[in-house]
Amino acid sequence: MFITQSTTKNTHFSSLPDDLFAAIEDLKKELNAVILVHYYQEPDIQDIADYLGDSLTLSRQAATTDADVIVFAGVHFMAETAKILNPNKLVLLPDLDAGCSMADGCPPEEFAAFKAAHPDHLVVCYVNCSAAVKAMSDIICTSSNAVDIVNQIPKDQPIIFAPDKNLGRYVSEQTGRDLVLWDGSCMIHEIFSEKKIVQLKIEHPQAEFIAHPECEAPVLRHADYIGSTKALFEYSQGSAAEQFIVATEPGILYQMEKHMPHKQFIAAPATGNCACNECPHMRLNTLEKLYLAMKNRAPEITLPEDIRIAALKPMQRMLEMSAQLSVTKSMLSSV
Ligand code: SF4
């Protein structure tokens, strides 16, 4: 049984400094720390990031940082990914309970049985999975590079794609490949309301509807553009449109509005009446907890070394394959 260990949780807020931003800056210098922040974090945390990005950007930063301490403001599997790449660094997660419904929906024991039932298949796993599931994979991918990575695999090679069936279906459509899909999904991206989005499009006929591929097929079929969180941000920068309906976790809207104040961004609505599109796992991290994690050097992410080594191989494969793609793309764009 695989267990990720950690030290104590940060639950005592009694002695917080008046200026948390300044205190975090001081601790950053003292620890030689780098703060990696996912787009789905609250605005205050986004503002103190050394690197802000999606999973691929942050994985690349984690792979190349020379800091001694990595403070990962994201969810558990992301901090684990940083630890896989940096066994000798202290990796801190502000709230250890910041998990992920998609990663939790792919238990290692059940995934091992699924893999055993498809012995000739190559295993491509979305980075949103535990270290133990990564350790059973051949290649890791992110929503930024999943299509390109599957396209690099020989056509006659059967593939398992896990754990997100929605991203898997999208990759299958884009590549023309039959993929064996694990039946998992994201609790945030699967609850967008197709009906309300269609209504919004009618009310805002000039708006472009842009969506993350973790959304379900009935929502994606209305999209003018589909891409990773970073790709949605970049698309909205390049587009001539002035209005966008955005179907992904609304944390990215903070960056969109900050960088494009002249454009309007409307968060796509969920089914029901709640603001359910904010990821409750991501939002467990707060600036206070981040400060305490740095002050206490805890909670720390640790991994059994055999799991870490096995998970490193498919991570490196992804970084190599996506680096090759970047080189090819930059060569193509320069001719
Ligand atoms: S938004 Fe979805 S995939 Fe991302 S951490 Fe939250 S539950 Fe997991």
From TrEMBL:
Transmembrane segments: none annotated. The keyword Metal-binding applies. It catalyses: iminosuccinate + dihydroxyacetone phosphate = quinolinate + phosphate + 2 H2O + H(+). Coiled coil: none annotated. It comes from the Bacteria. Pathway: Cofactor biosynthesis; NAD(+) biosynthesis; quinolinate from iminoaspartate: step 1/1. It is found in: Cytoplasm. Binds 1 [4Fe-4S] cluster per subunit. Keywords: 4Fe-4S, Cytoplasm, Iron, Iron-sulfur, Metal-binding, Pyridine nucleotide biosynthesis, Transferase. [4Fe-4S] cluster binds at C100, C186, C279. Its main location: cytoplasm. One of its GO terms (molecular function) is quinolinate synthetase A activity. Its cofactor is [4Fe-4S] cluster. Its EC number is 2.5.1.72. GO terms for biological process: 'de novo' NAD+ biosynthetic process from L-aspartate. GO terms for cellular component: cytosol. Iminosuccinate binds at H38, S55, Y126, V127, N128, S143, H212, P213, E214, T229. Catalyzes the condensation of iminoaspartate with dihydroxyacetone phosphate to form quinolinate. PANTHER family: QUINOLINATE SYNTHASE, CHLOROPLASTIC (PTHR30573:SF0), QUINOLINATE SYNTHETASE A (PTHR30573). Belongs to the quinolinate synthase family. Type 2 subfamily. This is Quinolinate synthase. It comes from Moorena producens 3L.
